[in-house]
Design a protein that fits this description.
Number of helices: 5
CATH class of one domain: Alpha Beta
Strand order of the largest sheet: 1-2-3-5
CATH topology of one domain: Aminopeptidase
Largest sheet: 4 strands, antiparallel
Radius of gyration: 15 Å
Strand content: 25-35%
Order of helices and strands: EHHHEEEEHEHEEEE
Length: 166
């Protein structure tokens, strides 16, 4: 996988044209990768593939200010970060896992958060994503059990302090 500057584009924000691709990445990451750590019932509640529409997904990702990693015209991952440094979503296509896409997305999130003056990054991380975030110096501060579509899941609240130096 080439470094992030060699992606076809790593846009500042997602566009309507990215909605179908990022939704496909989201669903594949949950149903193919996270299924190793979550039950079938949990995966169904989390992914909810039959109740998600591309226009609704587009509005959600736009509201979060999502950014997209695109390679050879295909969305291979996406993430977001708010001004307080909270990462709400970060997903990578299973076909591109372990190739630096997640690290590039995290670097983009960190740069944005620093620019906005955030003092730390934080995220509610799946059990599956925990090792990735730990490799990037995040520390677990709490285990949480959100109820999604009536099903209890486990995730981990993780944080990473950001230095003020740029």
């Amino acid at each position: 996988m080439p470094p992030s500057h060699e992606y076809d584009r790593c846009r500042g924000e997602s566009r309507n044209a990215d909605a179908a691709g990022t939704l496909a990445v989201f669903l594949a990451a949950i149903t193919q990768v996270a299924s190793t750590d979550y039950s079938r019932e949990q995966i169904a509640a989390w992914a909810r593939p039959r109740s998600r529409t591309v226009p609704e997904w587009d509005r959600e990702t736009e509201a979060r200010g999502s950014f997209v990693a695109v390679l050879t015209g295909e969305a291979v991952g996406f993430s977001d970060v708010n001004r307080a440094g909270y990462i709400d979503t970060m997903f990578v296509s299973p076909s591109y896992g372990g190739r630096g896409v997640g690290s590039s997305l995290l670097t983009t999130a960190e740069c944005r958060a620093r620019t906005w003056g955030a003092r730390r990054l934080s995220a509610d991380v799946s059990v599956t994503a925990r090792p990735f975030f730990e490799r990037h110096e995040f520390v677990e501060t709490a285990e949480r059990h959100p109820l999604i579509a009536g099903v209890r899941l486990t995730n981990l609240y993780m944080t990473k302090p950001l230095s003020t130096a740029r």
